[in-house]
Amino acid sequence: MNKESDARAVARIASAQRGVLSKADLQTLLAERHAAAFTRRVLALERDQVLRRFCRGFYVHEPFDLPTLSQRLAPNSYVSFGTVLARELLIGARPERQLIAAKVGRARTYRGLDREIVQVQIAEHLDFGHATVAGVRFADAEKAVLDVLYFHLRGRRYAFDLYSDIDYTRLNPRRLATYLARYRNPKFIAFAERVVAHR
Q1: What is the pLDDT of residues 160-175, one digit of tens each?
Q2: 83: DSSP letter
Q3: Where are the beta strands (DSSP E) in the chain?
Q4: 108 φ, ψ to 5°?
Q5: CA separation for the pair 143, 180 (Å, rounded)
Q6: What is the dihedral of CA 24, 111, 89, 72, to 10 degrees?
Q7: 58 within 8 A of 73, measured Cβ to Cβ
Q8: What tens digit of pLDDT does each residue of 7-28 get?
Q9: For the chain, how long is the longest CA-to-CA vector?
Q10: Are the CB atoms for 115 and 66 separated by under 8 Å?
């Protein structure tokens, strides 16, 4: 295969995968049996800016979808925090260059191409309130708010203000109460109820 045909093959598969390709995807696509030759072909695609390496084992083809990349990096995670608040119109500005997801297991941060994917660690009993949309697990609005408030108490800060920038009136009060009942920290429950009532 030559560089042009490799580039065309990458472009074809990239659109179906929202611009995110793993090393395994490329090995299947290029069907190159020799490791050294495979590496040379991938490097050629990088030099021509057909592919860009985000982190070890993952490449992107512009434009690419950050939530999809996060899900591929940690299949057991779900996208939450500011990305979901903006998606659900609870805040105005969407964080374009940072995505925060949550998962059971060790926290990880991935940085590449002037973007950051943060995957925070949650307890197993807090892994709820999300649904899969187009292959990506997203928190619903109520869970995203609770994630924001929960991690605020643990020291995380955001580009938006908890009291003035979040439209809590868009939340489903019954669902929020049901979710809050699953938390085991009375201090957090009282804090969350106070902040949401502040609206």
Answers
A1: 999 999 999 999 999 9
A2: H
A3: 20-22, 52-55, 58-60, 78-79, 98-103, 108-112, 115-121, 130-133, 136-139
A4: -140, 150
A5: 9
A6: 20
A7: yes
A8: 999 999 998 999 999 999 999 9
A9: 63
A10: yes
